[in-house]
Amino acid sequence: MGRKSSIDKLPADVRAHIEKRLRENRLTLDELFADVREAFPNLSEAPSRSSLGRYRLGFEEIMQTQRAMSTAASALVAELGEDFDDKSGALLTQAVTTLATKASFKQLDKEDLDIGDVLDLARAAKAAQESRSLNLKERQQVAKMAREKLLEEQKAKLEAMGNKGGVTEETKRAIREALGIV
Predict the structure, then answer these.
(1) pTM here?
(2) Among 10, 60, 143, 173, which residue's beta carbon has the most beta carbons within 10 A?
(3) d(Cα 181, Cα 159) in Å, to the nearest integer?
(4) Alpha helices per DSSP H over 25-112
């Protein structure tokens, strides 16, 4: 199945121009076809209208996924404020995993899968796993820092308490030991 797109074989500046026009999303397919021919009149193998159409479909699918992720991130910011590291990390991890899985399925549909494709899939799977692991480590670190802060606050309150209400130093020591306050 899937052979390399003729658009992918174009020089980088031509591809960049096409992708810029696709991101702008203002041109019809016929206008895009004319625009590419006008912008690059000396291009020996200009892309066909049908290859631009196929490329546009794949590009729009990617852009739709990116817009959905951006919308989700904006919704999280609106709901949770700017400092929502734990949940944004989880969202990013899920996005990386989803994209890696999607790429894997697309590659597996290819009949001429080579070792380079397999290595790319392995790297993508490793990156997704590492992002999951990193997210867990970050959550554990945040929980540890929150616990340490809470213990410091409790220690300060115990010290500021004095002997109010008949609380003795021995009682405070027992409380410190029970809470793990050093």
Answers:
(1) 0.43
(2) 10
(3) 12
(4) 29-39, 49-80, 85-108
